[in-house]
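Structure first, sequence second, as always.
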């Protein structure tokens, strides 16, 4: 690689990281905060929460990478144009490939990295996160419920305990069960315990109040009563795997006996084609950025900042891919549309690059943009100007 190509790839790479890390940190933080209930609801340690936060990271990286690359390329090339570096290169007779080659090498490397994360790292991280959350809630009654606090176990089921003793013994039990619309059940017990399997709550020396929809109340005292938790603990203790949690090998050759696949095979088809197209977005966005910002232009030429133009096109293309991938679930012919969108964008960008075509605003839009800029300059006083008279 030539010295100038090394210079370009280093500058673009640094700007790419500058754009990637803050955006990644912001999105990661918002995703992590949405799962803060793992600590508040299940009593997990901060170490478990940090592990879950780490497992979330691979799901965000492939989404952010293409847009960070667009920012890195357009900002670097715009700065080089402002410093007249691109102008000097053209005047010296340098080929445009001296800019295209290092940027596309970096873009292809990022695309390969995105493919590996999306198809190898992310599915394993998703499965581990689901299993971790499922295990955290599996034994909710005997290990998690806080003393003297009402806690919602699931919709219509609330529990309060007065004191937790050793040996899984619970003192002062109060349970409200309104899951059945025909009647409400309220349990009081002096003592109780969850069995080792977590499938039942054994209550002793208490009473149950049964209130029907028409307001009738019956009270039954008991020496011993077993409250069934099997459905709840099974659903909480086992992680259900979805299409996004599966490996690429499974998506290419799914198990016909898998319960989730049998219930929604179209979701697996959509996920497969999404993964086979998303990884190429960094390379496609790099071509678009080169078309927009890869040539020398006069500073007097009125145009939007290349970053704005490139990001607008990139967001539009990403939205089109997202829409087509979602429509595959109900309309299989969108598979061809999904691939067609990316292939068409690639071919158009390559055509414009090899033809040395410049993307510029139409004259009418350019004149309107110039008028808006002139009005804005008239409204905003320049530094040092004064609206009033001096003393």
């Amino acid at each position: 690689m030539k010295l100038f190509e090394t210079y370009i790839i280093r500058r673009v790479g640094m700007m790419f990281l500058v754009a990637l890390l803050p955006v990644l940190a912001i999105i990661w933080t918002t995703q992590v905060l949405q799962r803060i209930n793992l600590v508040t609801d299940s009593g997990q340690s901060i170490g478990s929460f940090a592990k879950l936060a780490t497992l979330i990271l691979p799901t965000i990286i492939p989404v952010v990478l293409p847009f960070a690359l667009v920012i890195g390329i357009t900002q670097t090339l715009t700065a080089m144009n402002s410093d007249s570096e691109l102008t000097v290169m053209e005047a010296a007779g340098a080929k445009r490939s001296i800019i295209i080659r290092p940027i596309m090498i970096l873009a292809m490397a990022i695309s390969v990295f995105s493919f590996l994360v999306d198809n190898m790292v992310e599915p394993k991280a998703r499965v581990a996160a689901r299993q971790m959350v499922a295990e955290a809630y599996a034994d909710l009654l005997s290990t998690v419920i806080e003393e003297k606090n009402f806690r919602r176990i699931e919709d219509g089921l609330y529990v309060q305990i007065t004191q937790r003793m050793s040996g899984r013994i619970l003192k002062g039990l109060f349970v409200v069960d309104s899951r059945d619309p025909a009647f409400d059940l309220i349990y009081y017990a002096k003592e109780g315990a969850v069995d080792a399997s977590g499938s039942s709550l054994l209550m002793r020396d208490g009473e149950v109040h049964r209130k029907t929809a028409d307001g009738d109340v019956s009270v039954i005292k008991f020496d011993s009563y077993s409250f069934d938790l099997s459905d709840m603990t099974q659903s909480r203790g086992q992680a259900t795997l979805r299409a996004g949690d599966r490996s690429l090998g499974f998506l290419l050759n799914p198990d016909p006996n898998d319960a989730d696949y049998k219930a929604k095979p179209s979701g697996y088809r959509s996920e497969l084609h999404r993964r086979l197209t998303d990884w190429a977005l960094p390379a496609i966005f790099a071509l678009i950025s080169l078309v927009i910002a890869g040539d020398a232009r006069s500073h007097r030429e009125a145009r939007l900042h290349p970053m704005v133009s490139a990001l607008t096109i990139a967001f539009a293309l990403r939205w089109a891919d997202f829409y087509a991938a979602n429509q595959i679930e109900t309309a299989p012919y969108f598979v061809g549309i999904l691939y067609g969108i990316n292939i068409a964008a690639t071919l158009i960008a390559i055509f414009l690059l090899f033809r040395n075509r410049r993307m510029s605003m139409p004259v009418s839009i350019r004149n309107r943009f110039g008028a808006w800029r002139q009005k804005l300059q008239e409204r905003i006083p320049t530094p040092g100007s004064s609206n009033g008279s001096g003393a």
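Margin note: Confidence is low (pLDDT under 50) at residues 385-391.
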